[in-house]
Amino acid sequence: MIKAILHGCNGKMGQAVCSVCAEDDGIEIVAGVDVYDGKSNPFPVVQKISDCTAEADVVIDFSNAAAVDALLAYCGEKKIPVVLCTTGLSEAQLASVQQTAEQTAVLRSANMSLGINTLTDLLKKAVRVFAPAGFDIEIVEKHHNQKLDAPSGTALALADAMNEELAEDYEYNYDRSKERQQRKKHEIGIASVRGGNIVGEHEVIFAGTDEVITLKHTAYSKAVFAKGTVEAAKFLAGKKAGIYDMQDVIQAK
To answer: What residue ranges in 131-251 does DSSP mark as E strands?
Structure first.
């Protein structure tokens, strides 16, 4: 059984990961790290990763950017693979991620859902067919009313994946109200909706003459991200040093 340290164990995503691991015979959380101690967990919890003495095969991180520096130093020193799910990292921290990956395995992804990452793979194939045929590409993403950023990181990742297949030839249009003109041929429109408690919805539209193809992913709870994260942790344990992402997890299945 794979042994994991859960960094940020008492946050919403940390608790979702706890629930998934409790039902998975292939992985066990042996220790947690969190500055907030208002949760009851079936494993010991410390406030700083440097105070953690548990033997583990992998670290799962759902914390915040302020805690990532110490996390990377810990994983690099102890050669423990880490699934890094914290977002909003600075350029300096991203450079540290690359340095840590020279010492141990690091997995990062804009979205930990197996569904979203499978969708990304499908989009790469679809855009190679539809873009040369003149189809327009639009992305509509929907999230809850507490989300601060727009468009979502996942929407941008989907757009980037398609644009890479198109030799970076497309521009992104985030707001058509700013200009009165026809849609440009080489652009990807990205629209954001915020409301209620929508967990996450991403719809990619390929609109051609007399036909429209839509690929869509809907998340109904945070559990989908936790499940993907746990699969990533099981994949990463024992891997050699380097940078990995969810596409590696999917391809290994």
So the answer is: 136-143, 171-173, 187-194, 200-207, 212-219, 242-244
